[in-house]
Design brief:
By secondary structure, the protein is of the alpha/beta class. It has four helices and 39 strands. It is flat and about 100 Å long.
Length: 343
């Protein structure tokens, strides 16, 4: 649906420079934009593309250079891009319940719900208004899913788990799988029954092929606003604080606790029963083997204060340089000794 530049500016909390009446149909990159397209400029490395773009209008921050094109000035161009993409996203029509879906008669389905082909909704499950359960997804007994959620194909939510509203779960993720709990016996390992739940708050997004385990007694908690990338494992009894961001391939062992607004880099790992306080940063591939307080900046294996980790890396590079210099000196001494012997 086309919108005037003024309508777009109002939605983005920006101000218009130039003709506010021009029509905008799409959002595009500076390089590919053409007639009817709105492009965004927030990277000085793309100044060349800015000069040559064929976009109908631009969105940029307050310090960006002026151009001849109609422009919307905003405080945060990247945030405005996210809003604009949502604004121009093609609406998906409501499709109701597919004939091949299996929905138990005791399940509660609110208005506007979509349930795709071959999806399964078990007994006493509850699905909130306008939620979309895509093809092949599975909701176990007594599962609760809130309003305006999107569960992509192949998502599995096992018995009694709870998902809040406006949650997105990408394809192949499993919520509520059994935690890795075994007790060593005299002849074999005995499985510890995993009877608790996974509870996920509002406005959470979970990537593809993640696993979030349930524990034996305490629920695994994902608090509101958490964003989890692909291929992340959250162990049983874990707690991830509100608005925490976790990059791909992170592994959290059982009973790990992350505070609010923690940033976790890709492939970081956490030993069981460790905690990291709110507003901390955990670098990529860090191995967290003990607990750290709020506002920590961590890196390395094992994880320690980032400044210490960087100092150790710098020292290691210095040692390598010294080693190479010593090797060259040793070769020189050996050469001089050889010459002396030949005299």
């Amino acid at each position: 649906m086309e919108r005037s530049l003024l309508e777009v500016a109002q939605a983005l909390d920006g101000t218009v420079e130039g003709d506010p009446r021009i029509r905008i149909a799409r959002v595009a990159s500076l390089e590919s934009a053409g007639a009817g397209d709105l492009a965004f400029f927030f990277d000085v490395k793309k100044s060349g593309a800015l000069a040559s773009t064929h976009a109908a209008a631009l969105v940029c921050g307050p310090s960006a250079p002026a151009t001849a094109l109609p422009t919307i000035r905003v405080k945060n161009a990247k945030l405005a891009l996210a809003k604009a993409l949502t604004m121009f996203e093609e609406a998906r029509p409501a499709r109701g319940i597919h004939p091949t879906a299996s929905v138990d008669a005791t399940a509660t389905i609110a208005d506007g719900v979509e349930i795709g082909p071959n999806a399964v909704v078990e007994a006493r499950a509850r699905i909130g208004a306008r939620t979309s359960i895509r093809g092949g997804a599975y909701l176990g007994e007594s599962v609760v899913v809130g309003d305006d959620c999107l569960l992509y194909p192949g998502v599995i939510v096992l018995d009694r788990c709870e998902i809040g509203s406006r949650v997105v779960v990408n394809a192949g993720t499993v919520i509520g799988s059994d935690g890795f709990g075994f007790v060593a016996g005299e002849t074999q390992h005995r499985k510890m029954p995993q009877l608790a739940r996974v509870r996920i708050g509002d406005d959470v997004e979970i990537g593809a092929n993640c696993t979030i385990d349930r524990g034996p007694l305490e629920d695994t908690l994902i608090e509101p606003g958490v964003k989890i990338d692909n291929l992340v494992h959250v162990g049983h009894n874990g707690r991830i604080g509100a608005k925490t961001l976790i990059a791909a391939q992170v592994g959290l062992s059982g009973s790990v606790s992350l505070g609010e607004r923690v940033l976790v880099g890709g492939q970081a790992g956490f030993s069981d029963h460790t905690s990291v306080g709110s507003d901390s940063i955990v670098g990529s591939r860090a191995a967290v083997m003990k607990s750290f307080p709020a506002c920590s900046k961590l890196g390395g294996t094992p994880a320690r204060a980032l400044r210490d980790s960087l100092k150790e890396r710098a020292a290691a590079r210095g040692l390598v340089a010294e080693r190479d210099a010593l090797r060259r000196l040793t070769k020189r001494v050996e050469e001089l000794e050889r010459r002396l012997r030949e005299r």
